[in-house]
Structure formats: C-alpha cells, structure tokens
Model the fold of this input.
Amino acid sequence: MHKRVMDDDISAEELMGAVERLVRHVRHSANAGGLSTAASSALGRLGREGPYRLTELARAEGVSQPNMTQVVTRMERAGLVRRVADSSDGRGVLVEATDTGLEIFRQRRAERTHALQLLVEELSEPEQQAVKVALPALARAIQDRQTRS
Done:
C-alpha cells in the first residue's frame, strides 16, 4: 500500500500516529473524578456546550442511546449531571452538568492542559512555535468543516 506523503519528512500515516499518541497521552493525564473515557467525553461536551437531550448527546458522542443512558445514569448517581425538563418542550428532558460536574470538568481540563504544556516545553523554540501555529490552524479547519456541514 502506498503511503500518501505530506512532505519530504513525514507521511500522513506517521502524522496520524503522532496525533494518536499525543491525544492518548493528554487524555490519560486527566485523573480528576476517576471517570471512564465515555463519561469524561460526555461531561466535557456538557461543560463546553451546555445541556443536551439524551438522544442528541448520544449522537454527538457517537454511541448508542442505551449506552449513553447508562453513562448518564452513572454520572447522575455520582452527582456530576442531572436531568431537567426542557423548557422548550414540556415532554423533553435535558442532561446538564451540575456544579460538581463542572468543577471536575475544569480540573480534568487543567490536568490535560498541564500535560500538553510540559510536552511543548520539551521542544526546541522553533518546534514550540510550529505547534502553536499548527494546532490552532487544525482546530480552525475542523470548525470550518463543521460549519459547512
């Protein structure tokens, strides 16, 4: 199989491997709340974006509704989220982060930020600058794709 080359030094496959290692390292650095990956991701989404209907949260997280129901139920028992009536639809229910859940979200984000900062500090100055330009540029490209969809 032919690897698509992005430039003379690194292939797209090698870049993907680097991204996966980076994401795994940063994710594993967050320990606050002792959450599963699914719970951490869902709490992060609720913390960043606000309340969601359970079906929409499951769709956004790429899991089945029954799986998301289990995740939300565990987080609810832990006091991290609560279910509230949807004011725009009396029959609907939203899942929102509690104050405790938001604090855990902030702690986990701070842990991940610190882990990334330590990694970047190990780089040379030109490499640090490249990361500071490349990562926001990739985030903008993702946002642009989502906006167009």
About this structure: The beta strands are 52-53, 81-86, 89-97.
